Amino acid sequence: MNGRFYVVGGAVRDALLGLPASDRDWVVVGSTPEELVAAGFRPVGRDFPVFLHPETGEEVALARTERKSAPGYRGFTIHADPSVTLEEDLLRRDLTINAIARAEDGTLVDPHGGQRDLQARVFRHVSDAFVEDPVRLLRLARLAARFTDFSVAPETEALLERLVADGEVDALVPERVWQELSRGLMEARPSRMFEILRRCGALARLLPELDRLWGVPQPPEHHPEVDCGVHAMLVLDMAARLQTPLTVRWACLMHDLGKGTTPAEVLPRHLGHEGRSAVLAQAVAERWRVPNPCRELADLVAREHGNIHRSNEFGAAAVVRLLERCDAFRRPERFAEALLACECDARGRTGHEDRPYPPRERLAALLEAARGIDTAAVAAAAAARGAKGPQIAAAIQMARADAVGAVL
């Protein structure tokens, strides 16, 4: 068949950085959809011509150009035919470090200085068309969380601000926002993603509940870092350090949102922020269609992290009530994630990064003891004494408290 094949984008970038191979994306120049289908490629692109390789399953796209025709990342008219050159295709890409192509013989095509910017550790846009697609802002922020020693070129920073000022960020759809946020949360230093978003004003549009935490004080005897926004980022980076799953990282990000709505006259204290945090976290989850496992854990951690921190002071009955509120008997795995998020919260403070967190191990052991109770036998014995529903539940709760008390 006609056409010249090139690997493009992240796979070339990562290879040049000496990183493990990522999924390869290909672009083919000088071919048509009909030729690719005849050669066994399977079409899968809905918005533009993308095909799956018949043997490797890798994505192959026809070289294309695009023209802005409406707001948002879908607002483009795509043009793809054999006359589109590789250089024209690379010109429409976001960053210079992603606009490098590698031919099948290994030759690199780098018309925009991507290799230079890799060496300089700089994120730089390819052209002013960068401002036409708001997803590019999110993608750059996510890459900043992965490539922690890269800076943003000043002229590119100006385009990020323009994306916000022009309202393009407001046209982002929930699926793409969550896709990029969730990927960025799983990078090495996720706080950098939010640093970039906040600096250009995008965080105030996408997550105003989080953005308003900066500048809000906390009691320095508990939080040496003082600032609520700084604390939120320390907690998030601690979650990355402990290699936690996405559910835990999302819960860490959401757990203190209520501190941004504490009345000024009671600062720096934040009494009752847990309930406010839970309400705000649910609103964020609705806005960006956050998956249920993430939103449920975030709700639990927001409501109960203060009680989990203080649980060393609880007696047996109070511990059992805490476990019941956390639904720990039915969902012990989720409770384990909640404890991990609380450890990140406790260690996400200046000078506390390497301190132990006793409540996590203690509550896990107490839950195990309470779950060892034969609830069916306790219920049967209570029923034999004439107990009904609430009385049977109280008998089970008492038996669990006895088990916890024996450990305490």
UniProtKB/TrEMBL annotation:
<dbReference type="Pfam" id="PF01966">
    <property type="entry name" value="HD"/>
</dbReference>
<dbReference type="GO" id="GO:0000049">
    <property type="term" value="F:tRNA binding"/>
</dbReference>
<dbReference type="GO" id="GO:0160016">
    <property type="term" value="F:CCACCA tRNA nucleotidyltransferase activity"/>
</dbReference>
<dbReference type="InterPro" id="IPR003607">
    <property type="entry name" value="HD/PDEase_dom"/>
</dbReference>
<keyword id="KW-0067">ATP-binding</keyword>
<comment type="similarity">
    <text>Belongs to the tRNA nucleotidyltransferase/poly(A) polymerase family. Bacterial CCA-adding enzyme type 1 subfamily.</text>
</comment>
<feature type="binding site">
    <location>
        <position position="93"/>
    </location>
    <ligand>
        <name>ATP</name>
    </ligand>
</feature>
<feature type="binding site">
    <location>
        <position position="13"/>
    </location>
    <ligand>
        <name>ATP</name>
    </ligand>
</feature>
<dbReference type="Pfam" id="PF12627">
    <property type="entry name" value="PolyA_pol_RNAbd"/>
</dbReference>
<keyword id="KW-0460">Magnesium</keyword>
<dbReference type="InterPro" id="IPR006674">
    <property type="entry name" value="HD_domain"/>
</dbReference>
<keyword id="KW-0533">Nickel</keyword>
<feature type="binding site">
    <location>
        <position position="142"/>
    </location>
    <ligand>
        <name>ATP</name>
    </ligand>
</feature>
<dbReference type="GO" id="GO:0005524">
    <property type="term" value="F:ATP binding"/>
</dbReference>
<dbReference type="GO" id="GO:0001680">
    <property type="term" value="P:tRNA 3'-terminal CCA addition"/>
</dbReference>
<keyword id="KW-0819">tRNA processing</keyword>
<feature type="binding site">
    <location>
        <position position="13"/>
    </location>
    <ligand>
        <name>CTP</name>
    </ligand>
</feature>
<keyword id="KW-0548">Nucleotidyltransferase</keyword>
<keyword id="KW-0378">Hydrolase</keyword>
<dbReference type="InterPro" id="IPR032828">
    <property type="entry name" value="PolyA_RNA-bd"/>
</dbReference>
<keyword id="KW-0547">Nucleotide-binding</keyword>
<keyword id="KW-0479">Metal-binding</keyword>
<keyword id="KW-0692">RNA repair</keyword>
<feature type="binding site">
    <location>
        <position position="10"/>
    </location>
    <ligand>
        <name>CTP</name>
    </ligand>
</feature>
<feature type="binding site">
    <location>
        <position position="25"/>
    </location>
    <ligand>
        <name>Mg(2+)</name>
    </ligand>
</feature>
<feature type="domain" description="HD">
    <location>
        <begin position="228"/>
        <end position="329"/>
    </location>
</feature>
<feature type="binding site">
    <location>
        <position position="93"/>
    </location>
    <ligand>
        <name>CTP</name>
    </ligand>
</feature>
<comment type="function">
    <text>Catalyzes the addition and repair of the essential 3'-terminal CCA sequence in tRNAs without using a nucleic acid template. Adds these three nucleotides in the order of C, C, and A to the tRNA nucleotide-73, using CTP and ATP as substrates and producing inorganic pyrophosphate. tRNA 3'-terminal CCA addition is required both for tRNA processing and repair. Also involved in tRNA surveillance by mediating tandem CCA addition to generate a CCACCA at the 3' terminus of unstable tRNAs. While stable tRNAs receive only 3'-terminal CCA, unstable tRNAs are marked with CCACCA and rapidly degraded.</text>
</comment>
<feature type="binding site">
    <location>
        <position position="139"/>
    </location>
    <ligand>
        <name>CTP</name>
    </ligand>
</feature>
<dbReference type="GO" id="GO:0000287">
    <property type="term" value="F:magnesium ion binding"/>
</dbReference>
<feature type="binding site">
    <location>
        <position position="10"/>
    </location>
    <ligand>
        <name>ATP</name>
    </ligand>
</feature>
<feature type="binding site">
    <location>
        <position position="142"/>
    </location>
    <ligand>
        <name>CTP</name>
    </ligand>
</feature>
<dbReference type="InterPro" id="IPR012006">
    <property type="entry name" value="CCA_bact"/>
</dbReference>
<protein>
    <recommendedName>
        <fullName>Multifunctional CCA protein</fullName>
        <ecNumber>2.7.7.72</ecNumber>
        <ecNumber>3.1.3.-</ecNumber>
        <ecNumber>3.1.4.-</ecNumber>
    </recommendedName>
</protein>
<dbReference type="GO" id="GO:0016791">
    <property type="term" value="F:phosphatase activity"/>
</dbReference>
<dbReference type="Pfam" id="PF01743">
    <property type="entry name" value="PolyA_pol"/>
</dbReference>
<keyword id="KW-0694">RNA-binding</keyword>
<keyword id="KW-0808">Transferase</keyword>
<keyword id="KW-0511">Multifunctional enzyme</keyword>
<dbReference type="InterPro" id="IPR043519">
    <property type="entry name" value="NT_sf"/>
</dbReference>
<feature type="binding site">
    <location>
        <position position="23"/>
    </location>
    <ligand>
        <name>Mg(2+)</name>
    </ligand>
</feature>
<dbReference type="InterPro" id="IPR050124">
    <property type="entry name" value="tRNA_CCA-adding_enzyme"/>
</dbReference>
